[in-house]
Structures are given as structure tokens and as C-alpha cells.
Amino acid sequence: MLYKCPPLSDTIVFSDNARLAARLSCVLAKPRAYLPVIDGPRMQRPDREAEVIHRTNAVARSRARRVFLAGLTDKSADALTQKLPRGRCIRVHEADDLDGFAAAGMALGPPLIWGRDRIGIGLLQALRGRRPIVFEDRASPDGHVPPKRDHLVVCEEGDELAQVVAANYAYALGAGLFLIQETPKDHVEQIMERFYSVYESRDQSPSQALCELRDELRGIAADVPVPKDGSITFISDGLPFGFAFPEVPSTHLFSYPGLGIATLHGFAAEQQGTRGVQVATLVNPETTAAPEIDAAAKILSQQRLFVRVYQGQGADVTSVSEMIELFPYDLLIIATHCGDVSGHHWTYDFTDSEGLPRKLVVDIALGIGRTEDEDLLHVTQFMRFVALDGVPWNDREQKAKLYVGTAMTDFMDLTRDSNDEKLRPTIKDTVSRVIGSAAMKMHDNNFIALPRSLANESTPIVINNACVSWHRLASNFMFGGARGYVGTLFPISTTEAEEVLLRALGKHHGKMLPHAFWSAQREAYGDGPRRPYVVAGVYPQRIRATVADVPAYITSELNRGRDAWTRYRDHAGPHEAQRKRTVDAHVRFFERQLEWFQRRW
User: In the beta sheet, which residues pair with residue 135?
Assistant: First the structure.
């Protein structure tokens, strides 16, 4: 069992070129330290400014003195350079000689010659041997890298930059690395759908269905060398492989998007001298029985955490959504009903920017919250693409033959609120279930969580103690800035929700998050196939309480948030009407919170 989080390197790498990032890793990585490797900002996205900010914030958290921009487009590299301190960025291209970037006095051995695939295995071998790596156009050898300690990293092969992150992660932990084949996206969705509807089958019992899912996931993972009395980190595109390996504690990281940032968040929060977990917010809308919330509040208070509870009428959509994005908490626990909801089934006909006629079908679920204006509601929209030009969007084989071109980006531009000639649906219908909507029932309405950033950038741990709260929400919360997330794969009873959570928080307090929930589930479920809870985030992190003047910290963070949003409102405009209302609401949120804390303390 690993007990210590590795320190962070004083260097950070931004790269969209996996092989160049691997070569840089060989000269920059240091033994027993983690070298962060992060993809560049996606400048084609409408929220490209946020893409840049998330990455510059990551540099600040890492406290890196050198920032390598390796193989980025000029647009991405320029955007980062403009936001970072002058003289800190170093641009690197594929043809550059990298030996000069090695630390003074560090001698590298002869190069490791590697093939065009399985680059994570080659990189970890090169890192352990203190050798540079050279890639050739040939197949790489089979095999894996065994762990030096008792932790194994299992990574899907599809995303090569994810393999580079996985190799650096494994190197810092003394872990082994094992690659498995990438699972097609449509197969992932089918498996997750079976978890969601495990109680709906009339042909088999839930236990039989779970056994089949466990066996199928183990088959996909194929021959993983499970470390005896060890643990595993799975890096994949969303499959909960840990469910299939109940014999060891496990955690998960998502290969895309944001793997590098999520990994950095987890390690940065566990560095020596960091705050740990001081502020907990608990949500109980009282739409379903949730006795664990009161018990959890008591346990956390005894552990000297500052606890704030949103309960009953206080847990409405607007209050909870504002808190999740803006209030500076370190731990969030939610207990409510969660599941996909009914919605709209709309068809859009339009001509894309290439002059091609397109027909796009989407499913839409809505979350509705109150605002301070009684004549105005705040609407959050979750959209799922169903079909383009008659081709199902989740059919990998048919979609491979479909020319998508600019259709999707054009559609998003045409339906944006700021568009004066906003595209309208030509056919309107309804659907009984919008797959993936994962709405959480608040006291007044459904909450569709699509967080852009969490907890005023405080990278919290989120425990969503609700039914089927892993689906979509795990990746969304991690992308939004959570350093850890715990959710469930299928419906759970009130009794087990209380039992597992309170065991993890109480009896197993102080253990790493994967160990705490693994131990709690072993005690609750014995040898049965039922293991609903799945953990995401880096392996060595825990709910680590530290003593401080917490009200003073909260007040400081609220002041920082208010000032930042006020500057944005007053100097970054002009804003479209809806955006301006949102920014004004954020400023008022911080002002209300500051007034309450200053009055109380």
C-alpha cells in the first residue's frame, strides 16, 4: 500500500505531440517526482479562453519554474505565453535537440529504440533506465512494465498522450504499466447502459446481470496482472474497470478530456504543507430519504472540518448550482435522487458553412432554477446528439463513412443565444428518457450539472451518494476541476448509501480514497458482485483534515471571487444579455456570502 504522494517537478510540459512529450519526459523527469504533461488549449472551442485559464491555473498550482510548450500550434502556444510570466515558457519543436534541457549533472544512457505504438511502455522503460527514447516506424514489442512496489497502472491504448501521462504517473509512484486495447465508444455506451438498467431486465436477476458485466469488463481488460495485496489505477475513456476487480482497491482517470490537469490537481492537493480538506458542503434536498447527511455532518465536524449543509428548501437548483461553482469548499457530498429524465427530441435542418444541407437530430433535457427576478428562470440545457444526416451518432462503423466536416461546429454557432438569426428546430417531439442527462433532483426542480469550474477553483473531492451518479457526472466533475470523485453505477438503497458512506468517512478515515471505499464496500457486500461505488482521481489522495482559521480562509476566497467576477463584468465586456445576467448573479452571490460571514465572524 502506497502512503506518500510524490512531490511535483519544478517543470511542466504542454504538448499535443505524444512522441515529443515522451522524448522531453526522458530528459526532464526526476526519480520519485511527478512531471505534469498536459494537452494544449483547444483553441477551436467556443470556450477557448477558459481552456487557456485552466492551464495557466495548473501552472500556478504546480509552482513550476519552467513551462515547456512542445509541439503546440502557434495559436495555442501564443495564448499560453501571453498569460504566463515572461521568460518562463520554452518552445520546443520536434526537430530540436533535447539533451540540453536535462538537469545539470544528469547523465543519460544509450537511447532506447522504440516502435510506433505502445509508447507508454517504451517511455516507462526509458524513464527507469535513465535513457532517452527514439521512435522508429516499426511495431513495438509486446509486454508490460512490472511494478517496483505494489501499484499497477492500466491504460487503454487509444490515446497516445494519455499513455505519456500514464508512464509519468507510474514512474512517480514506482508503479507498473499495462496496456489494454481501446474499447469503441459505442461499446462503452452499451456497457454503461446495462449498468444503468440493471434492475429493468425481466430475464435475469440484478445479481446475474452484475456478474455478466463484471466478467465482460475482466474480459476487455484481458490478463491484467493484478498485484497481490496491491492496487490499480485505470486510465480509460469511461469504463469502470475497478468494478470488475473487487479483490484490490482501485481508482480511475479519464483519458480525455483533461487527463493531465486532473492528475496534477490530485497530486498538487496532497503536497506537503497544502491545506488538505477544511471545508465540507453537504446537500440534502429531502426529495428522498438521506439519513447519512446528518450523520456525515457530525462525523466531519468531529474531524474538525467546517461543515455547511444545504437542506430541504435551502437545496434548490439555483442555490446548489451557485455553491458548486463558486463557494470555496474542499469536500462536497450530495444525497438525492439521480437519473436520466424525459425531454425534447428535436430535428434541425440547416446548410453548413461548406454549403452542404444537413439534418441533425438531438435529445435535450432541461434543468430549471429560480432567479432573483420572479419573471425570469435560469435554464440549463443538456444536449445529446442522436443522428446526423440519418446516421446514428453512436454507430462507429456508419459514422466512419459519414462526412461530418463543419456540421457540428456550425450547428453550435447557429444555435448560440448570441446569434441574431438563431436556428430553430423544424420538427419538435418528446422522448421519455434523455440518455446521459443524469439529473439530480433538488427541492424545487431537476439540476443538470454541467460545471465549468468547481468551488471557486479549489479542486475539491466530490462524493455523489446518489443512484447512478457515475454516469456522465464523474467525467464532468473531473473536467470541471474536481481532484477526486466517488459515484455509483446503479441504483442503491437508503440503507447501503448510509452504511458505505459512513464507513468510508468514519471507520476508514485517513485511508486513501480508493482504500476507504474499497474497505467499506467489502464490509457491506461481502463476496457478492454488488460494488456500486467507483472512485476517480489519482491514487494517493485522502480526506486529510488540517487545522486553520477556516472562516478567514473562506472570507479571503469569497473576496477573491467577488473581485475577479467584478473585474470581468466591468472590463471584459461587452457581454450578451444572458452572459451579463450570469456574471451579475455571480457577483451578488459573493456579496451575499461575504455579508453573512462577516456578520457571523
Answer: 114
d(C-alpha 585, C-alpha 378), whole Å: 11
Reading the block at residue 536, the C-alpha cell is 476517480
State the Cα–Cα distance between residues 296 and 304, nearest whole angstrom: 12
Residues 6 or more apart in contact with residue 312 via CB below 8 angstroms: 284, 285, 286, 443
544: cell is: 486529510
Going from N- to C-terminal start, the domains of the chain cover 11-269, 279-339+440-537, 343-434, 550-600
DSSP 111: P
| Contact criterion met (CB below 8 Å) for 81 and 105 | no
Q: What is the 3-state secondary structure (H, E, C) of 122-183?
A: HHHHHHHHCCCEEECCCCCCCCCECCCCCEEEEEECCCHHHHHHHHHHHHHHCCEEEEECCC
Q: How many CA atoms lie within 13 A of 160 on its CB side?
A: 15
Grid-cell match 457571523, residue found: 600
Tens of pLDDT along 504-549?
999 999 999 999 999 999 999 998 899 999 999 999 999 999 989 9
Q: What is the pLDDT of residue 395?
A: 84
CA distance 594 to 556: 9
- Which amino acid, one-letter code, is at 236? S
Q: What is the architecture, at CATH level 2, of domain 279-339+440-537?
A: 3-Layer(aba) Sandwich (3.40)
Number of neighbours of residue 554 by Cβ within 10 angstroms: 22
Q: What is the pLDDT of residue 105?
A: 65
SS3 428: strand
The Cα 392–Cα 5 span in angstroms is 44
Radius of gyration of the chain (CA): 24
pLDDT at 2: 53
Grid cell of 191 as nine digits: 456497457
Sign of CA dihedral 171, 177, 181, 187: negative
- Identify the bridge partners of residue 384 per DSSP, sorted by sequence position: 363
14 in Cβ contact with 70 (< 8 Å): yes
Chain Cα centroid distance, residue 340: 20
List CB contacts of 105: < 8 A, sequence separation 6 or more.
none
In order, the DSSP letters of 187-247 are HHHHHHHHHHTTTT-SSS-HHHHHHHHHHHHHHHH-S--PPTT-EEEEEESS--GGGG-TT
Answer whether 348's CB lies under 8 Å from 359's CB. yes
Q: Which portions of the chain are predicted below pLDDT 50? A: none
Q: Which residue has cell 509519468?
A: 168
Instruction: Indicate the pTM of the whole model.
Output: 0.94
